Amino acid sequence: MISAARLREIAFWSADLSEQEFEHARRGIVEKAYGKGAYICHRGDRFDSWAGVTEGLVKLSTVSRNGKAVTLAGLRAGGWFGEGTVLKNEVRQYDLVALRDTRMALMDRSTFLWLFENSVGFNRFLVKQFNERLGQFIALVEYDRMLDAPARLARNIASLFNPALYPGLGMHLQVSQEEIGLLSGISRQMANKSLQILESKGLLRVEHNGITVLELERLARYGG
DNA sequence: GCATTAACAGCCG
DNA sequence: CGGCTGTTAATGC
């Protein structure tokens, strides 16, 4: 169980809960730390929690039939995921990797289901979340073949700044070029070049161990 | 050829 | 000093 203040801090959706719902959520959540490079879960594992990243950076990836690693999504602090798997009571369809030292908030399945059954606010949040993710995965379809490295990088970064998934977090993100490369499925060197290209177009600003997005809309559409 | 890995100097915190 | 960045050279598909 975590404190009320902590829940407010790590879960933007908690603002939409009633007092009773909030209390229920609080009692069903624990926080856990993962070291850099650690697997939070493997594909095929049972991982019966709905999860939020409270600190760090997480990669959701899987391996295609021909053995190629594919990143499905990157998640930064503030992001929540796994609602589909928990609702369906399935094993995970992908690997979860901590790209740096990371902390996760884990909500147990029964608490999640209780909120799903009882909270209108929580369901509004879930629908919005499903909607945004659907958009992300539709973009993934064209992503693989049709886009070059800078465009893939641009879309990956844009998804980390999705205002529905990460409300109120601002336009700056502390992230290394290597981490962005890992999320985008390209090398650090390519990430470096791609970032410079995007910066030259005025879409973002490259900083030491970080980026600031200047034109989110254009970034999300870059190359498409 | 193009992207990836390797290697390294310079810079930043 | 340790980690990140920007570049070049070698290597691989």
Structure description:
It contains nine helices and eleven strands. The mean pLDDT is 94. It starts with a helix and ends with a helix. The strands form three sheets. Strands 1-8-3-6 form a four-stranded antiparallel sheet. It has a four-stranded antiparallel sheet with strand order 2-7-4-5. A three-stranded antiparallel sheet has the order 9-11-10. It is of the alpha+beta class and 224 residues long. Helix 2 packs antiparallel against helix 4 (109-118) and helix 6 crosses helix 7. It folds into two domains: 4-119, Sandwich (Jelly Rolls), CATH 2.60.120.10; 147-221, Arc Repressor Mutant, subunit A, CATH 1.10.10. The chain is globular and about 50 Å long. The protein has helices at 4-10, 19-27, 83-88, 109-118, 120-146, 149-160, 177-184, 188-200, 216-221; strands at 29-34, 39-41, 49-55, 57-63, 69-76, 80-81, 95-98, 102-108, 172-173, 204-207, 210-213. It binds a DNA duplex (13 and 13 nucleotides) through helix 8.
